[in-house]
Amino acid sequence: MRLTLRALTVLCLVTLIGGAAARAQTAAATAAPPDRAALEKKVDEFLNAHARVNSFSGSVLIAKDGTPLLSKGYGFANIEWQIPNTPQTKFRIGSITKQFTSMLIMQLREQGKVTLEDSLCVYVTPCPDPWKPVTVHHLLTHTSGIPTYTGQKAWAEKMMMPLTPDQVMGFVRDLPLQWVPGEKYAYNNSGYFLLGLIIEKATGKKYEAALAEMILTPLALKDTGYDWTRTILPRRAAGYSGRGPALGNAMPIDMQQPYAAGSMYSTVEDLLEWDQSLYTTTLLPEAAKTVMWTPFLNNYAYGWNIGQADPKLFGGHRRMAHAGGINGFSSVLIRLPDVKMTFIVLANNDGANAAVIGRDLAALYFGQPYSIPSPAAK
Q1: What is the model's pLDDT at position 9?
Q2: 347 SS3 class
Q3: What does the pLDDT look like over 101-127, one tens digit per residue?
């Protein structure tokens, strides 16, 4: 496999947070936000170039105050049948799932069923002794020290197999902690997998059922859910890898394995509804949201990267974001809460770096430098 689930996601996250890496710069024509027609023209030029050079395909949404300024599909949801992507196409969103998992944990905290200081071993069995100091907070912030299962060679060889949660955690259960919990940060799918087990223990329900009951149904997110491979799911995109002549179907993965760390699907339209709900107290009180969005180490809070204002990026506005990468798919959701802007990119090619595209779409909108890809010189 060319890139693991973890490697894809980390690539997106590093690109999103890392700032203005050296790249070819194309100046936008004006510092003023473009009108809708001008915006669509610029976005089309930008994404059509990504399609030509990087085989990008997917759906994109840009919104202001919850109102879409652009919502459009590019390329094909199924290349073999030439079925176009649309704003209603369902994509696997990978680690954007972590936002929903952290919300479930915080809701359970409000109900008094979970505390952030609880040991992991209160909820998960078998639980090895080295895991006893690991708390819910450590899992949420990628600071537990538990190795990530998606980084293990043995897991990569079995990712397409229908393994139980206990079997998945077996890839790391006997490994030593990488550091004392809370001391360091490293992006970690094991932590959010274990949070899914905590949610099941605290609710007495499967993660999928708790997700639907506590988030998806209250928000009427009818095009979002747990992406079981066997389920007949209308308008689901197929996933691809590679570019140009090397483009092909993505390596399979059994969707129980990403679980609470990355097994959801959604559309750009539903993710905008999710984004807008976060401005309200429908799911969580303001004080609890403040806790959820307070970064601990490496600008990571609970399921969100929190980026401070930088005059060179995102129009100079602070941002909240998360990227996702899973076999055949790349995704990003970027929120600029001070100006209520939203940028969503869902791609059904894991070689398309959605975090880079989302960052550049924001630059395009705000009249800052961005990159238009061009074919490599021969």
Answers
A1: 52
A2: strand
A3: 999 999 999 999 999 999 999 999 999
Residue 106 sits at the vertex; the CA angle it makes with 104 and 107, to the nearest 5 degrees, is 65
Check: pTM over 0.85? Answer yes or no: yes
What is each CA distance from 166 to 28, 132, 173, 181, in whole angstroms? 51, 17, 9, 22
Q: What is the 3-state secondary structure (H, E, C) of 158-171?
A: CCCCCCCHHHHHCC
Q: Confidence class of residue 217 from pLDDT cuts 50, 70 and 90?
A: very high
For helices 5-17 and 189-203, give the axis angle rounded to 10 degrees: 100
Alpha carbons within 13 angstroms on the beta-carbon side of residue 118 total: 20
- The verdict on domain 5-366 having CATH code 3.40.710.10 is yes
Strand partners, 325: 330
Best CA proximity match to 107, nearest among 371, 328, 303: 303
Return the closest-CA partner of residue 22 out of 376, 319, 369: 369
3-state secondary structure of 230: coil
Q: Are 135 and 119 in contact (CB under 8 A)?
A: yes
- The whole-number average pLDDT for the span 55-66 is 97
* In the chain, where the domains are located: 5-366
| Among the listed residues 99, 143, 121, the one whose alpha carbon sits nearest the alpha carbon of residue 194 | 121
CA–CA gap between residue 325 and residue 96 (Å, rounded): 9
pLDDT given at position 18: 45
The predicted structure's pLDDT at residue 16? 54
What's the CA gap between 13 and 15, in Å, rounded?
5
Query: Which residues fall within 8 angstroms of residue 67, CB to CB, at 6 or more apart?
Result: none
Amino acid letter, 46: F
Cis preceding-peptide flag for 126 (omega within 30 of 0): yes
Q: What is the pLDDT of residue 34?
A: 73
Tokens for 306, please give them: 């929190």
**How far apart are the C-alpha atoms of 126 and 197, rounded to whole Å?**
12
Following CA atoms 348, 194, 101, 265 in sequence, which dihedral angle do they give, to the nearest 10 degrees? 20
DSSP-derived secondary structure letter, 151: G
